Amino acid sequence: MAVGLLEEYERPIPAPMTLADPQYVAEIFGALEEAGAAVHHFFLKVPAEVLARRIDARSVVPRDPERDEAVRQWCKTRIAQCVAAADTLPADTIFLDGERPCRELADEVLTRVGVSVNS
Known about the structure:
The protein is mainly α. The chain has helices spanning 2-9, 22-34, 48-57, 65-77, 79-85, 102-112, and strands at 42-45, 94-97. Strands 1-2 form a two-stranded parallel ribbon. The radius of gyration is 16 Å and the shape is globular. The chain starts with a helix and ends in a 7-residue tail after the last helix.
């Protein structure tokens, strides 16, 4: 699907997700590279306690407080694995300080993938 999007839109396709399983990283990045797609992997390094605060501050299912809390708790059980994943990522991974302002992070990503940044 990602390769199809790249072919159709002819520009980088951001995929905002954390791959915490090295096997998934190898499978997904390998398939993209095999298809000739350039892969720019960015990883936001954020301390576990900051991630927990951010998860607590968001609402996924606002009309169902019980389910909303269950989602937050599930996300929080994944924090340790996601933080530890930083040590298992490919050598060409670009690590970004996830505590920087969103605009700065977006500008850095765009610059690194060769898209002009308009202020």
